[in-house]
Amino acid sequence: MSVAGESVRAQQMRARAKDLEQAAERATDPQERQRLKDQARHLKAQSEHTGGTRTPDTDPTVSSHR
Fold first, then answer.
1. pLDDT of 57
2. pLDDT at 51
3. Within 13 Å, how many C-alpha atoms sit on residue 34's CB side?
4. What number is the average pLDDT over the span 1-27?
5. 57: phi then psi, degrees, rounded to nearest 5
6. What span, in angstroms and rounded, lies between the C-alpha atoms of 26 and 54?
7. What mean pLDDT value characterizes the chain?
8. CA 27 to CA 3: how far, in whole Å?
9. Number of Cα atoms under 13 Å in the Cβ half of residue 38
């Protein structure tokens, strides 16, 4: 998968995680709320692993030596 494709995929995963977090806030059942929060947390972690969340501070191609 290309870097651009990974970035799009990561963005989609973060958007889905946000949707799940919002659904968790609306959930009245504590078990359902926790399940949704867990899914959101898993997707966020997966999106960070997939890529697309790099900043100049974490991008290995950007030198910190000035």
1. 47
2. 74
3. 3
4. 88
5. -70, -25
6. 31
7. 81
8. 36
9. 6
Integer Cα distance of 39 and 20 in angstroms: 7
Which pair of structure tokens corresponds to residue 2? Answer: 């290309």
With H, G, I as helix, E, B as strand and everything else as coil, classify residue 45.
Answer: helix
Residue type, 41: R
**In which region does residue 15 sit, left (phi positive, over 0), alpha (psi from -120 to 50) or beta (all else)?**
alpha
Instruction: Kindly calculate the radius of gyration of the chain based on its CA atoms and give it in whole angstroms.
Output: 15
State the DSSP code for 60.
T
Look up tokens 């910190």; give the residue. 64
Token pair for residue 7? 């970035």
Given a cut of 70, is residue 56 above it in pLDDT? Answer: no
Tokens of residue 40, six digits: 């959101």
